[in-house]
Amino acid sequence: MAAQIPPQKRRGRLKIFFGYAAGAGKTYAMLNAARDERQEGCHVAAGYIEPHDRAETAALLQGLELLPALEILHNGSYIQEFNLDLAIRRRPDLLLLDELAHTNAAGCRHKKRYQDVEELLRAGINVYTTVNVQHIESLTDLVTSITGVPVQERIPDSVFDSADQVELVDIAPGDLIDRLHKGRIYPDKVLQEKYADLFIPEKLIALREVALRYTADQLNRIALQIGDRAASASFYTKDHILVCLSSAISSKKVIRTAARMAEALHGTFTALYVETSRTKELTAKNKAELRENLRLAEQLGAQVATVYGEDIPGQIAEYAKTSRVSKIVLGRSHNKNRWLAKSNFVDRLTAEAPNIDIYIIPDNGPSLRRRFPLYAKTPLLSLADTVKTLGILLVCTLIGLWFKYLGFSEANIITVYILGVLMDAMVTKGRLYSAVTSVLSVLIFNYFFTAPYFSLQAYDSGYPVTFVVMLLASFITSSLTLRVKEQARESAQKAYRTEVLLETSRKLQQAKDTPAIINETALQMVKLLDRSIIVYEVLEGELTDPLIFAKEGAAADPHSYTLEGERKVAEWVLQNNKRAGASTDTFSGANGLYHAVRAGDTVFAVAGIVMDQEEPLEVFEKSLMIAMLGECALALEKDKLNEMQKEISLQIRQEQLRTNLLRGISHDLRTPLTSISGNAGILIGNSMVLSEEQKQELYSDIYDDSMWLINLVENLLSITRLDNGALDLNFQAELLEEVIAEALLHVNRNKTEHVLTIQLEDELLMARMDSRLIIQVIINLVDNAIKYTEAGSHITVSARREADFVRVSVADDGPGISAEAKAKVFEMFYTADNIRGDGRRGLGLGLALCKSIVHAHGGNIEVSDHDPQGTVFSFTLLAEEVHVHE
């Protein structure tokens, strides 16, 4: 069974002490609050407190448990970091952790301290922490414009928004500046001078205003979540903010602005990236910048979506209309692009989506193109393409000379050169060769085919017009050909990726069980990503041995990625239901990227993608991979539900059997038991006055009832042993005459009231059987005929050969069985409507036992009408040849 994250008594609560500048007293307020909690009996531990060399702060640490720091070797010296594992093992009621935006040193589990806090909260530990306004991601640009100093350490807004309590530690700007001058913020004079520019009244007042406003928004949000309005609020669906992503550095500002807008409007937030054919040509720096932008959007709560196409405004507009976007946020760089591109991305988008508000966020930062190029530089000239171009021009010229020799007009020769330009655009890469071919075609035509020949001059006044038309036709033809090539390549890529998803969905639907589902998903991931895949299935809350799906020509042995260190990452993903490993901020030093195959909080498996020192996954690859894992999780969940449904059905069936048995015992056993006890009581109390004939009659009734109970118990035990496979069958060749004769010796003693005959086709007829069980079958069938037919009726036991089988039949000329009863007569606990003369119907076990025994012998049992009246029960057994020894 799949495992869920180990349930905790409760999720820990987070309280943030929020300030607008260093030295406002956040740590002091946190320690004071912690001491109050400690006096109330709470177990308080200090996980990590920044050493600010402030006497007042150090005094408050006295008496609090201070957890030992984790020492990590960095550049030849040891640095101290928060020990996350020790804190989870210690499990205090309240943990103090300073500087929420701190970046952990390499070697720690998480890249950021706020990720440590998230894991502590999931472990059920309450946390007090501190943070300044400049560390809030969406406020970074605003704070930087106030202070002029960029901030490197930031936390996503979602972390701050998830806090259960926020306490603003406020101090007047004048008092803060006074504290700086007295050395109570930075005792070192050098540091005081270094940060003096930040402690200016105008800047502090602006920062204080931002902090107050942001705290008020957070407190209002908490109040809404606690109040009744949170349950019925519908305003979250009124506005849908869409931010358009790119690899530009300015996109970070656009994303933060859109995030603040979504927060202010209480709307949903989506980040859209349009992948084009040139995405793969992005430089390594631009790809890294694009990944950072995507990660920032996710951290700020955006749902990331990816579409594919060359018409970027059209793709954005189509997605916006389909997703009911109300506002689109774009970035605009101050770079001056080509005059064709200047027209107007925004105008086209406005025309495509006229009912959607569009917000343009200007970029006042350094030019992206000055920092690094947008696309990777490719060689302008290629030897292969140069040879192809020259060859095409040579062939066109030779064909033109041949046409001239044949007397064809110049228009035919011009058509040949236009055809050559088209061919060149098809077989070469880039637009350079198409342009060069167009120009050279005009020059060669002028040189060889216009008077004066072998000169670039032209006597005819109409030739310049011919040359211009020829050049324009060549350019247009080559441009259209290149566009068709790009569209064909895009269509092929889209078709391939769509085919992979459809194939994955089809194969998952056809998979019969969990191993098949995991196998198909992993193979499809290898096909999509061209990387080795490692899958850990989850059974009873633990990871199983890894399943390795290696790509062809893998550089390293995938087994090396299943060592203890990598398995720990997968176990962490299982416990926390989050991704980790390479290209993430958790276990970033791992060699694989691990994702949970999950449905809600239930983790069915952990899938690892072997990165093998390769570049991180592309945006579109990542989205398709997540879609695959989602489909896999749904298939696994469906399989688990089917298994549970089968177990429930089996339990229901067993409960029905139990109910029928108890009902039968309570109803049908009461009559014989009452009869036995009553007759025994008469014999005990009236033995002296009863005649011998009366006594014999009572003895017979007691015997009959006792035998009925014995046969019932024997049938129950036999059925149980057969169903459980605990009954060993001893197959031997037996004479049917002897088996039938032995069975008739043990049938109901009322057989004397009926005419019982035996008919055998051959006295030496033999069959392969376990004789003691087949005897029980014949006894049950004959007893059944005796019970449900009138006295004096004829009962015939017969046997005959049918091909490789022997058919044994028990026929009577009684009242017969209805069509409805025939369909159910071999079911356990089924009894026909006709009731015995003594009022007992029986439990309906005899014929069910016969069916089980015959099927165990490889035969069939059936019921049919007896001509002209009555019923025939017959069953088949494998025939055996008679061996005569001379």
Q: Describe it for me?
A:
There is one protein chain. The chain is an alpha/beta fold and 886 residues long. The chain contains 28 helices and 27 strands. Strands 1, 15, 16, 17, 18, 19 and 20 form a seven-stranded antiparallel β-sheet that branches. Strands 21, 22, 23, 24, 25, 26 and 27 form a seven-stranded mixed β-sheet that branches. Strand 10, helix 11 and strand 11 form a beta-alpha-beta unit. Helix 17 runs antiparallel to helix 18 and helix 23 runs antiparallel to helix 24.
Major sheet description: 7 strands, antiparallel
Continuous helix count: 28
Helix content: 40-55%
Strand tally, please?
27
> How much β-strand is present in the residues?
15-25%
Global outline = flat
The mean pLDDT is: 80
Low-confidence segments: 1-8, 228-237, 335-343, 366-372, 834-841
- In terms of structural class, how would the helical and strand content be classed? alpha/beta
Which radius of gyration do the C-alpha atoms yield?
A: 44 Å
The end-to-end distance, rounded to whole angstroms, is: 65 Å
Set down the secondary structure blueprint.
Layout: E1 3-4, E2 14-19, H1 26-39, E3 44-48, H2 55-60, E4 65-66, E5 70-74, E6 77-81, H3 84-90, E7 94-97, H4 113-122, E8 126-132, H5 140-147, H6 157-161, E9 165-168, H7 173-181, H8 189-194, H9 201-226, H10 229-232, E10 240-244, H11 251-265, E11 268-275, H12 284-299, E12 303-308, H13 312-322, E13 327-332, H14 345-352, E14 357-362, H15 368-371, H16 383-406, H17 410-427, H18 432-449, H19 463-510, H20 514-529, E15 533-539, E16 542-543, E17 547-549, H21 564-576, E18 580-581, E19 592-599, E20 602-610, H22 619-668, H23 670-686, H24 692-724, E21 732-735, H25 736-744, E22 755-760, E23 766-769, H26 771-787, E24 794-802, E25 805-812, H27 819-824, H28 846-856, E26 861-865, E27 871-880
Parallel strand pairs: 2-8, 2-9, 3-4, 3-7, 7-8, 10-11, 10-13, 11-12, 13-14, 22-24
Antiparallel strand pairs: 1-20, 5-6, 15-16, 15-17, 15-20, 18-19, 19-20, 21-23, 23-27, 24-25, 25-27, 26-27
Helix pairs in contact: 13-14, 16-17, 16-18, 17-18, 17-19, 18-19, 19-20, 19-22, 20-22, 23-24, 24-28, 25-26, 26-28
